[in-house]
Design brief:
The protein has six helices and nine strands, in the order E-H-E-H-E-E-E-H-E-E-E-H-H-H-E. The chain has helices at about 30-40, 60-70, 105-120, 160-170, 175, 180-185; strands at about 5, 45-55, 75, 80, 95-105, 135-140, 145-150, 150-155, 190. The protein has one domain (about 45-190): 7,8-Dihydro-6-hydroxymethylpterin-pyrophosphokinase HPPK (Alpha-Beta Plaits), CATH 3.30.70. The structure holds 6-(adenosine tetraphosphate-methyl)-7,8-dihydropterin (A4P) and magnesium ion. Magnesium ion binds near residues 135 and 137.
Length: about 190
């Protein structure tokens, strides 16, 4: 099995200077949403995992673009070519991988980053599980549990999907024990690294 690749963080640009607030500008009170985010924010970085998939266009380039723009990435799994699960018949094979982050961001903040990466890849939503340039799913964020209409973490379908569990097992074998069966691993073929 190809070992996971340590992701070299890009050299940091000098921190942007914060614009000075005009004199007499009162600090804005927190909204209910921002207060909830603050309460959920981990104090120390936690291990988080995102699942990436592409089955349209230059799949490798879309995955590489996502890895370059996602924040706090520390490790990238090998790539796998995988048979499509669900969706319309006749769609092409996927390239899948999983990235590991060391992050203090919340699950909701990571969903926003995931959706920004999808938008940057010009993802079009035509039908559920239809072909896509890029899909980024929030799999795990430390031990955070979220059950909201537009965000469920841990990702509810990840434990039954070979295209998630095989690359996740490369990065964190302890997490897939008892979930990754030989039947799930069928149709998940090594495809090199990014
Ligand atoms: N959403 C809720 N929880 C999450 C989460 N943890 N991470 C919501 C990301 N999104 C989450 O997703 C639909 C909605 O799910 C979003 O609006 C978000 O608020 P989507 O990406 O717009 O649509 P989708 O991906 O078509 O639907 P879904 O249900 O997320 O599908 P999955 O589970 O992501 O599966 N086969 C192979 N071989 N490889 C693949 O990568 N991917 C899928 C998509 C199907 N078959 C595949 C693969
Ligand atoms: Mg998705």
């Amino acid at each position: 099995m190809t070992p996971p690749r340590r992701h070299k963080p890009k050299p940091q640009a000098p921190a942007p200077r914060r614009p000075q607030a005009p004199a007499g500008d009162a600090p804005r009170p927190p909204t209910a949403e921002s207060a909830l985010q603050e309460r959920r924010r981990p104090r120390a970085p936690v291990r988080a995992f995102l699942g990436l998939g592409s089955n349209l266009g230059d799949r490798r380039a879309y995955l590489a673009g996502a890895v370059a723009r996602l924040p706090d990435v520390v490790c990238v799994s090998p790539l796998y070519e995988t048979d499509p699960v669900g969706g319309p018949p006749g769609q092409g094979a996927y390239l899948n991988c999983v990235v590991e982050l060391a992050t203090t961001r919340t699950g909701r903040e990571l969903l926003a980053e995931a959706q920004a990466a999808e938008a940057a890849a010009h993802r079009e939503r035509v039908e559920r599980w239809g072909p896509r340039t890029l899909d980024v799913d929030v799999l795990l964020v430390g031990d955070e549990e979220i059950n909201e209409p537009d965000l469920v973490v841990p990702h509810p379908r990840m434990w039954k999907r070979g295209f998630v569990l095989v690359p996740l097992g490369d990065l964190a074998p302890e997490l897939v024990i008892g979930h990754l069966t030989s039947e799930l691993a069928r149709g998940v073929r090594p495809a090199g690294t990014l």
